[in-house]
């Protein structure tokens, strides 16, 4: 009898021990814009995924932080970001005055944004989401990771092949032992002409945003005077047209997002360390409450009340943290990679796993002055920037991304981070599926997975996903055969493909030579004009594929408008259009299949 009891106790203990350990392929800690998108993508790529969020909402800064007016990535309807955007627009489309135009600024109430993300994740197979769940430790476990979380006040161990840091403050990567830098980078270190000559420890301000509701002119919703309130602190509002500020900040349902000079709170990297964070945030909350009180009492907007959040002061659960510390990745993305991607020794655009079309926010240059950027073009985020340099199978998002201080001002945008998260999720799925580590990344397979799930790997504003040659054009552009065309619009610049434009011979010759060994022979045998003709392209394809030129041309001519759906006439003597070149080159030569390394160099 005693032996049976001992056996029963042993079996019970084994069951309890087993229940305390969860195994998953991919673990995402942090349910911000990037983290939630990464978890969705990893799961849709058929990998078992767990998403752990310490707070009550998904969405991070754009929901829990109240940053719910998004003007980034309006021109690139890519993947999960486009899906979220569509859900928001459909939810509000019957609301009077809501702008549903294709590239309108996206506006939503934070709670609604969080609810939409939760609804999406609830429908994704192989995805487990745990809210209000803190994590307490992170350590290496062979080629994978072991993380301890707390569920119902009890410790639970999660073992995962791949770990993604989706926190806003790089806490996971910090515990995992990643290497970081903080502050502005020196010009010598990054080669950025806008960077200061010497590095500084200055980082961008944080902000507790205020979601305000207009209760009608007669209402008085004045809050209690905050501790330490000093009206001079908010003097920057004196020179601002408040009516215009509120109009520009209107969400809907008589709600406004106040995000301006008056609620920015200066911090240092030390102030954001975990042990100092609570005290820093408490002071920042008081600072924003003071702004609200100033608005109500000095500027006469006593009818405005704080709304949306169930916190004691009705401010968001978290502040907007624009910058904290940047991890050292395999690759660091610099402004030069954004402004002149084709002129760099590295060709990082070839390794893109996400796109960004965002107005830059505040960044510091020489002597702490605010940087005046030239118009910032849409750009790509390379695979190497999400991979921690010194820790295998640790992927980075949010402010931990391996970028310079000047680039961070754009990549920190939630709309960019959601797009980035999809690429991170595809990368994690690759690592887990092939049971490999971050030393053995296959750029083209990961990019293919992003494309399979309606994501962009090149930020074209004039070729939509439903175009029959969308994938071909995306793939040709990341090889560099056809370059994006920048068009300035205010303080940003969109990237266009220009499908009807002719192909310049001098543009494609260097890339063809790099990619195909027989290119040199073909150009020696064939005289080409400034504009590459359709006949040139067909001849080159036959040279590389060893097809019979007459048979190939006859077949193509016969099916030009029926099979290939080209609207132009078949004429071998005219310049080939970029659209035709992308479609035919991708189909018959498939340069995208040529492997590239993490720097974008073609591997022969």
TrEMBL record:
UniProt keyword Heme present: no
SUPFAM superfamilies associated with the record: FAD/NAD(P)-binding domain
Signal peptide start-end: 1-19
Keywords: 4Fe-4S, Iron, Iron-sulfur, Metal-binding, Oxidoreductase, Signal
Domain of life: Bacteria
Record PANTHER family: COB--COM HETERODISULFIDE REDUCTASE IRON-SULFUR SUBUNIT A (PTHR43498:SF1), FERREDOXIN:COB-COM HETERODISULFIDE REDUCTASE SUBUNIT A (PTHR43498)
Protein name from the UniProt record: FAD-dependent oxidoreductase
Organism: Mucilaginibacter gynuensis
